[in-house]
Design goal:
The complex is a heterotrimer of chains A (231), B (466) and C (238).
Chain A lengths: L1 H14 L17 H5 L17 H15 L2 E4 L3 H15 L4 E3 L3 H8 L5 E3 L6 H6 L2 E4 L3 E3 L4 E5 L14 E6 L4 E2 L2 H12 L6 E5 L4 E2 L7 E2 L6 E6 L1
Parallel strand pairs in A: 1-12, 2-3, 2-4, 4-7, 5-8, 7-12
Antiparallel strand pairs in A: 5-6, 6-9, 10-11
Helix pairs in contact in A: 4-5
Chain B lengths: L4 H14 L2 H24 L3 H17 L1 H13 L4 E5 L2 H14 L4 E4 L3 H5 L2 H7 L3 E4 L2 H8 L16 H12 L7 H18 L2 E4 L3 E3 L4 E6 L3 H5 L5 E7 L3 E2 L5 H13 L6 E5 L13 E7 L3 H5 L15 H5 L1 H6 L10 H12 L1 H4 L1 H4 L6 H5 L6 H15 L3 H15 L1 H21 L8 H4 L12 H8 L1
Parallel strand pairs in B: 1-10, 2-3, 2-4, 4-7, 5-8, 7-10
Antiparallel strand pairs in B: 5-6, 6-9
Chain C lengths: L1 E5 L2 H5 L2 H13 L3 E3 L9 H5 L3 H15 L4 E4 L2 H14 L6 H9 L1 E3 H8 L12 E5 L2 H6 L4 H8 L5 E2 L15 H4 L1 H17 L4 E4 L2 H14 L4 E4 H5 L3
Parallel strand pairs in C: 1-2, 1-3, 3-4, 5-6, 5-7, 7-8
Chain lengths: 231, 466, 238
């Protein structure tokens, strides 16, 4: 308590000194300085990458971003097709054991694979999760602007399911596609009404690193593969 | 020039590295890749400059209401079962964290990247107290094994070749040598996977702190922070008090800007908000979540009428990446936690003006940093101000004398005119002493030819016209 | 109009042709030149070294003399930035602050004056050579110059402009920095020279002679086949 008051006290004292606003010296911008002064009060979506309004445009943008990130994104026509896709991947990669959580899409899809399934709901053994070849989760949204997947510790079976197994598969619905991050945050606010899950995460592509000679390597610690099946 | 030990060390290292052509080429190559990626992502913004204006405005308002935001942040976070600690100094931060670690009788600690941890020498303190600490970020893990400081606060191992890393792994881990970055990464992945699972404590930093919802936001590409915050039973986050953002949706602007400016990506792989320990009904997560708020002289930077905006920094590293000094001397030469232009600005304030002002002099004030900063901190102007403050506090007597003399010379044109004429004569003899210890222009002539005073100066030409 | 010229100390001493070219160009355009001989230096060396007290007498003299000028043209990006951008900071909260701001409003770097104020780009010049342009930092980032020199060069007959990759990267001069940290300064300059050599240009052109002085010093030491020249001299070549 004491240090809290000390720190807040020092802050208040510091702020009693009026300070110089930055940015007045940035003359190199492409816009003439007059524009810099007139910081138009528009929502940030006006400056961020453009996203089209129609679903087709948005899904195309999500697909383009996914390709760039090496996320395997597939738009499927039915839940049947979704399960078929999943089975195809499971076979191609030789999955022996998978992990998932309870959910409308995940439950059935995982069961249909006929493999041993670890359910993370209600707690699990980490060593068992570590043995799983894939983690299958739902999500809260797909973000067209970034090619990202929004998950939470409530919608995606906890914190580790989407990051410990070497392959993360997201099962999503078309209606979950949102244009941009602003829309994603609005969705979170509306959905959780202040009772937020303890973890909210935007997953944008598989795990990667450039720490060795700036060369891109996938699967640094998190999943080497990210697949999004959208029905 | 007044020389403190830090300044002398800096000059020595800088001189050595400036001549190292291999180092120069390697770093330039690395940063060139970043530049290309960065420019392509910037181009996707509808208006990058207006995005900077918006980001600068949000951060300016945030730090100017820091007390309110911090209080809100703490209250909202505590409402969901997290514990918030306040540390005025680095020592207090270390004590708090050591206290938690001891209480938990921890055996193993895993860390994601924590620059404030570097700042307060946290790893040292934990290791001295007998705890095993493993860095999970690949670059940090590598420099930890080498017992050296991070070279760049975003790309800690940027200075190393794959060959050096392979040798390191062979020596420290007993693995077979390999030339493949992929194989090297997989070695680290295998080692660290076990650490995540067995660690009792995960220690993290934070990129942002959201006041409105009481959440911290952590950005990583590897997933190492995600794992550090998922598996260990206790999670501790150490962060500077200036990291606040007022609203959750501010991240819609800051996450892409951080990623673009920092690494040339539109979004980093994992952008995660943590608002508490494991909540009822959740499958996993730490049972305890502690956030340690660190001041460590940030409030004195806040009190600066001219340099308060330095606290807007989002630690993206863009200023390092464009700095021609950084590119030539590298990150270790700075000899302190924060390198590059932002480091040169804040270190004198955080660690002592006289001892560290040499960082502000080691700049040509080119302004590339100010141009690159996503939140528009007036970086190179602050370097000028630091120089003024350092000299006003403690002038270098012969410099002061020289500039007083110069003032007389330059305000009496006849003296200047005479000086040029004398220079014209003197330069005839200069070749005799050029490059020798007798050469008054040795600092220049060591590596460059001197310009010559013209046979007819401008004023002579002008007067001869009439 | 009556144009008051500020001639920086190093132009006066070492690169008088740049100043002379500016005079000739402006007179040809029909303007009269006022050259205040009592002014020699803008005060930047002391200012950048942190000695603002010692800068003020030099800067105050400049302020006083240029107070009644109609318009001031400065033959240098760095001195231009000093007078235009930094004088107001130097004289902040002093009686001369208003004067500094007034002077700032009527100051132009040379290429900016031609293009922005006079609206002139074609000076009837010819310079049949392959050249590359170095954007001096003060000119580029303090004064926002980029398009102006290029608009002027585009109208020079026979001139072939090849942009170098590191056109906007600092050459490493930085005033007293070049003496305080000579090895860093030279390393930066070597990068600039290398980038220029890649363009196979015969000349490096710039609107800042202080940069060119440093770059030429390195070129001469290395014995490279490259020449530096001030933009004004190129524009005055007929």
């Amino acid at each position: 308590m004491n240090e809290r008051e000390n720190i807040l006290g020092r802050i208040r004292e510091a702020l009693s000194v009026p300070a110089q606003k930055p940015g007045g010296h940035d003359h190199a911008s492409e816009k003439p300085c007059g524009d810099c002064a007139s910081k138009e009060a528009r929502p940030v979506t006006a400056w961020l990458p453009l996203v089209g309004e129609a679903f087709e445009e948005q899904v195309e943008l999500f697909a383009k971003n996914s390709k760039e990130l090496t996320t395997d994104f597939r738009l499927v026509a039915s839940e049947e097709e979704l399960r078929a896709c999943l089975a195809e991947i499971a076979q191609a990669e030789g999955w022996k054991k998978i992990a998932t959580h309870a959910g409308a899409l995940t439950g059935e899809a995982a069961a249909a694979l006929g493999l041993p399934v670890l359910h993370t709901d209600g707690g699990y053994d980490v060593c068992e999760l570590e043995q799983c070849d894939a983690g299958i989760s739902a999500c809260d949204a797909l973000v067209a602007q970034t090619g990202g997947v929004l998950v939470t510790s409530q919608s995606a079976g906890g914190r580790a399911l989407s990051v410990l197994p070497p392959h993360h598969v997201v099962l999503a619905r078309r209606e979950q596609l949102v244009p941009d991050l602003t829309a994603a945050f609005a969705l979170l606010k509306a959905k959780y009404q202040g009772a937020y899950p303890s973890m909210i995460s935007f997953i944008t592509g598989p795990s990667r690193t450039g720490d060795i000679e700036r060369i891109l390597v996938l699967g640094a610690h998190g999943p080497k593969k990210l697949t999004v099946l959208c029905v | 020039m007044s020389t403190t030990p830090a300044a002398a060390e800096f000059k020595k290292e800088a001189t050595t590295l400036s001549k190292d052509l291999t180092h120069r080429a390697f770093i330039r190559g690395a940063l060139k890749k970043y530049e290309v990626a960065r420019d392509s992502k910037k181009a996707r913004f509808q208006d990058w400059q207006q995005a900077r204006n918006a980001a600068s405005e949000i951060k300016w308002q945030a730090i100017n209401h820091l007390d309110t935001h911090l209080a809100d942040f703490a209250r909202n976070l505590e409402a969901r079962g997290a514990k918030v600690h306040w540390a005025s100094t680095g020592e207090q931060a270390r004590e708090i964290i050591l206290g938690i670690v001891r209480e938990k009788k921890a055996k193993a600690i895993v860390k994601s990247k924590v620059m404030t941890g570097e700042e307060v020498h946290l790893n040292d303190a934990l290791e001295k107290a007998g705890f095993e600490v493993v860095e999970s970020d690949l670059g940090e893990y590598i420099v930890q094994l080498r017992h050296e400081a991070p070279y760049h606060f975003v790309f800690p191992a940027m200075h190393l070749t794959r060959g050096q890393i392979s040798e390191l792994f062979t020596k420290e881990l007993g693995t077979a040598p390999t030339n493949s970055p992929e194989e090297l990464t997989m070695i680290a992945r295998r080692v660290l996977r076990n650490k995540y699972i067995t660690a009792d404590i995960g220690i993290t930093g934070a990129n942002f702190a959201i006041a409105e919802t009481g959440m911290i936001s952590i950005t990583d590409n590897e997933g190492n922070a995600r794992l550090t915050c998922a598996l260990p039973k206790t999670m501790i986050t150490l962060m500077g008090i200036e990291k606040v953002l007022p609203k959750l949706e501010d991240l819609a602007l800051f996450l892409p800007m951080l990623a673009t400016a920092g690494a040339g990506q539109l979004m980093t792989g994992y952008n995660t908000m943590y608002g508490g320990p494991k909540q009822p009904g959740e499958a996993d997560g730490p049972e305890e979540f502690h956030v340690v708020l660190l001041d460590n002289k940030r409030t004195s930077l806040l009190a600066s009428a001219e340099q308060r905006d330095a606290l807007q920094c989002i630690r993206c590293g863009a200023c390092l990446n464009v700095c021609p000094i950084y590119k030539n001397i590298g990150g270790h030469t700075y000899g302190t936690t924060y390198q590059g232009p932002i480091g040169a600005v804040i270190t004198p304030k955080l660690r002592g003006l006289q001892e560290w002002s040499h960082l502000s002099f080691a700049s040509s004030l080119c302004g590339a940093c100010t141009q690159a900063c996503p939140v528009k901190i007036d970086l190179h102007h602050h370097l000028l101000q630091s120089r003024r403050d350092a000299r006003a506090q403690k002038p270098v007597w012969w410099e002061k004398l020289a500039f007083q003399g110069a003032a007389i010379l330059f305000t009496n044109a006849w003296m200047f005119d005479l000086g040029m004429k004398l220079g014209r004569i003197g330069q005839i003899f200069h070749p005799l002493i050029k490059g020798t210890p007798l050469d008054p222009a040795l600092a220049w002539t060591k590596s460059r030819e001197l310009p010559k005073v013209a046979p007819e100066t401008f004023r002579e030409w002008w007067n001869h016209r009439k | 109009m009556k144009v008051t010229l500020f001639i920086p100390c190093f132009i006066d001493a070492c690169f008088p042709k740049a100043g002379a070219s500016v005079v000739q160009i402006l007179e040809r355009l029909g303007h009269t030149i006022d050259y205040p001989q009592e002014l020699t230096c803008c005060g930047q060396p002391a200012f950048n070294s942190g000695y603002w007290e010692e800068t003020r007498p030099v800067a105050a003299k400049v302020l006083a003399r240029l107070k009644d000028a109609e318009v001031v043209v400065i033959v240098s990006g760095s001195c231009g930035a000093m007078i235009k951008n930094f004088y107001p900071e130097l004289f902040k909260d002093t009686p001369q602050e208003a004067d500094a701001l007034r002077l700032s409003a009527k100051c132009y770097e040379f290429s900016d004056f031609l293009v922005t104020k006079l609206g002139v780009t074609d000076l009837g010049a010819q310079f049949p050579h392959r050249v590359t342009f170095h954007d001096g930092c003060h000119g580029r980032r303090e004064l926002g110059l980029k398009a102006q020199p290029r608009a002027l060069m585009a109208a020079v007959r026979g001139l072939q402009l090849v942009e170098m990759e590191e056109a906007e990267t600092c050459c490493g001069f930085g005033g007293t920095f070049s003496a305080k940290f000579p090895m860093i300064s030279s390393a930066m300059g070597e990068g600039k020279v290398a980038s220029a050599l890649e363009t196979e240009a015969e000349y490096i052109v710039s609107n800042d002679s202080s940069c060119l002085m440093h770059i030429q010093g390195l070129i001469d030491r290395q014995g490279k086949p490259l020449k530096t020249i001030h933009l004004a001299e190129v524009l005055n070549n007929r």
